[in-house]
Amino acid sequence: MLPEGANFGVACPAFPGASATQAPASNEILWLVYVGAGGQGGDWNELNIWADKVSENTDYEISAAGVNMMYGKAKANAEAELVMVIIPSIFLLGLILTIGLRDWQVAAATIGGVCLVIGAELGLLSLFDFEFSVLDGIALPIIMGVAVDGAYWYSRSSRNRDEVRGMLFVAMITTVAAVSLALFSPIRAQRSLGLVMAIGIILDWVMTRYLLEDFFLKRRKVHEDFSGTTSTVNSSSVWAWPAALIILASIAVMAPPGVNVMDIEQFLPEDDPALVEMEELQSKYVLASSTLAWVVIDLDGGSEEDYQKLQNLQLQIGHHPSVISLETGMLRTPMVIGITAENATTVDQAVEEGGETLFLDGSLAQRLQHEGITSGVAIAVFIDGQNSEAAIQFMDDLDLLMERNQIDGVVGGDLPTGAQASKTFEESRITQILSAGLVIFIVAYFALRNPKQAARIAVGSIAIGAAVDGMATLFGGRGVNTALAVLLGMGFAADYLSHASADHGPTRLDMSARWGAALSSVSVFFLLSMTTFPPAKNTGQLLTISILFSAILATCLAMVHTGKTTHISEE
């Protein structure tokens, strides 16, 4: 492959100044490499390491570039940062707990319980051969931040044992209910991360309820300076709750629409050198700015009719404006890597005569077989990797084309799938927030048997979810990777509102417990937001905002109550 503007060495008017006696001018060679065919694929970062070693030990300068390379680099960076965040998070959380609780023993017990929960979850997931990815690692600091509630409410609040039990139970089931919606996401990474979070939240509750409860209550009795004095509530304070809801709704309304496409830029920092190198490569080589789309169709390998349909489909795909073509001045070659042979009449004959193609050899066959019988084929298509709207249009046009030609098949690929997922998320994000609110209302009503209290929790959670979704536009942009942060933010809102929704007069101790838990969680999420891995950074920022919004809204709701106590049961 020669860079743009190179002299092709042919006497053709299409290339001004070209001469048949002059060789092409280029000082570099572009290799197209495929790593880890089949199965789970290979580690693309290994190619980076290989290129660095070859450049260091030879006279040639070799650099590995491409979208897959950048994904490999993003994964390696995220793994390194995750290790660097977990240990400091434990020490920082221990310090904040010691300051907030004024009791190093309770702080130490809480940290020990957090480590036990994380170890138990990792062991449980390994029993079921769960593949723990670097994105799932984002859940670990979050689980640490969730675990502090019990320590504050048992040892610092004015509530009795049964009240705290009930509040923490409602907080757990409403948070899990919100996060569990991610289990129904079409995106595997969201389902996996949602599962890890849900299990961690449940284990946090089990650890607090059955292992640490008695210890926390005993430590409460040690502090004789505790006072359950009820805070004075004036008549104007009751308006804080509706005013806060209006402000949160205003944030959601004023936020600009739109969703970022799920591509490599969502996994690397904006100033990463790999992105700059990729831009330079794309400006010089047409294939470097492309991405692969896959078309998989069902057919009979021995059918002449199906083979003819395949040939027609491949020809029509080549005419789509999104497909990359190689231009020589005399020939235009669409980059559609399909199955064809000059004298073949069936797919089986074409494969036997055609042999290997540019990308697809025996390790990654284009012919799909079941028990030795050809049941389908895979077509690789190079499309414009810089235009997500064109990728969606390519999918839609090809689906329509196959439907008209009575061909069963599907279209996929990194950019088409990511662009389609972003479009689907844009269309369904409001529905997702409302659905989470409905689920929170149902589980809260099931536990509380109080529709008014459950409605307050649900309405507040929806307001928080909408506001956090709007705030996402300020922190890297709204995208598929922020959807779970919004759901978890709604879970936090349900958690804090369940504490404040009971008809219990607000006290200084309750206020101290609420804000102590909030600031302790924020310390962990703030550390997570300091990473450079965009999904982790954005999640940390949004969860920090979620906790602060939730604590403020819960404080406003606590001002509404008259002082009656509502019994909450775990049954």
Q: What number of structural domains do the residues give?
A: 2
Helix content estimate? 55-70%
Number of helices: 17
Return residue spans where pLDDT drops below 50 for at least 5 consecutive residues. 222-228, 360-364, 562-571
Total number of beta strands: 7
**What best-fitting shape do the alpha-carbon axes yield?**
elongated
What's the gyration radius in Å?
29 Å
List SSEs in N-to-C order.
Answer: HHHHHHHHHEHEEEHEEHEHHHHH
Distance between the termini: 69 Å
Beta-strand share of residues: 5-15%
For the largest beta-sheet, the strand count, sense and barrel status come to: 5 strands, antiparallel
| Mean model confidence by pLDDT | 80
Q: Could you say which structural class the secondary elements and strand pairing correspond to? A: alpha+beta
Structure in words:
With 571 residues, this protein is α+β, with helices and mostly antiparallel strands. The chain is built from 17 helices and 7 strands. A hairpin with a 4-residue loop joins strand 2 and strand 3. Helix 6 runs antiparallel to helix 13. The longest helix has 35 residues. It starts with 44 loop residues before the first helix and ends in a 13-residue tail after the last helix. The C terminus is likely disordered.
